[in-house]
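Summary for the steering committee. The consortium agreed at its last meeting that each partner would contribute one worked example illustrating the joint modelling workflow. Our contribution is presented below. We chose a case with several input lines so that the handling of multiple components could be demonstrated. No manual editing was applied between input and output; the record is shown as generated.
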Amino acid sequence: MNLFSLSATFPRALAALTLACAALAPAARAVTPAEQLAGYTAQAGAPASPARGQQLFTNKHGGEWSCSSCHGAVPIQAGKHASTGKTIGAMAPAFNPERFTDPAKTEKWFRRNCKDVLSRECTAGEKADVLSWLMTLKP
Amino acid sequence: MPYPLHTRIGRLALALLAASGFALPALPVLADGNGRMVPLTPKYKEECSACHVAYPPSLMPAASWNRIMNNLPNHFGTDASLDPATVKELSGWINAHAGTYKRVREEPPQDRITRTAWFIHKHDEVSAATWKRASIKSASNCIACHTTADKGDFNEDNVRIPR
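What follows is the complete predicted structure of the assembly.
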C-alpha cells in the first residue's frame, strides 16, 4: 500500500466526512451574539446597560485583576494573559467573528473569569451588560 | 433514518482519523521520554491551550497531572474549571501519555514542569533577568522562546530568546 497517496486523499475524505457529520449532528448549535444577548436579557428580566457593562469590565472589584487586565481596556484588539503572557484574540464580536457564537463556550468563560475577577459567578444581567457593551464597539 | 447513518459515518470518520494519524507526518507531534511520537488531541488543544501553550503530557508523571486535573477550579491562581465529562476524557488521554522516562518520573514541586530537575538543568544558561523580561513574563510561557512549542516541538534549533 502506498502511504503517500493515502496521506493525500485521506485529509480530503476526512474533511468531507467531518462536514457531513457536522451537518447531521444535533449538538453545538451556532448562535449570534445578538441571540445570546436576548437570552441573557430575558433571563435577567431587565434591559442591558452597555455603560454598566463597561464599568464591570474595567473595574478590579477589590481584587488583583479586572477583565481588562487580560483583554485590554477597550477589547477591540488582541490582549495578553496577565500572568502567562499568551495572546488572547479580541473580545468585541465586530473585531472577532468567532466571539459569542457558541453558548457553551460563552458560559464556560463567564463562569471562570467572573470567579477570577469578582470571586463569584456573574448574574445573567451582568453578562447581558458586558455583552451589550462589547456589541457597541464597532470599527 | 438519519440517526444510524450519522453513527456509521461518525465511526468511519473515527477510523479514518486513527488511520490518518499514522499516515500524516505533518500532524503536530512530540516525542515523549521514550522517543515515541504522540500527537496532541484536538480536545486537549482546545481546552488546555487557551491560557498557555498545550503542555505535552510526557513532561510530567501521571500523579502530577492527576492533581492538576482534579483541581482545575483552583489552577495556579486562576479558574480553569471544566465539566466532569471533559475532565474525565482529558484525564484518560493525559494518563495514557504522561511521562514515564526516568528523568520525568519524579513529581516536581507545585506540579510545575518548570520546577522539574530536567527543566532547571536544560535552562541553566537563561539568566534570572531574562526570565523577567516583559516579552517572556514567565518560565511557563514556553512559546516566548520555543517558537514551535504550540506544535509540541521543543527542539533547541527552534529556540529564539526575545529581547
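Confidence is low (pLDDT under 50) at residues 1-37 of chain B. Chain B touches chain A at residues 2, 5-6, 9-10, 12-13, 16-17, 19-20, 23-25, 51-53, 73, 76-82, 135-138, 140-141, 143-144 (CB under 8 Å).
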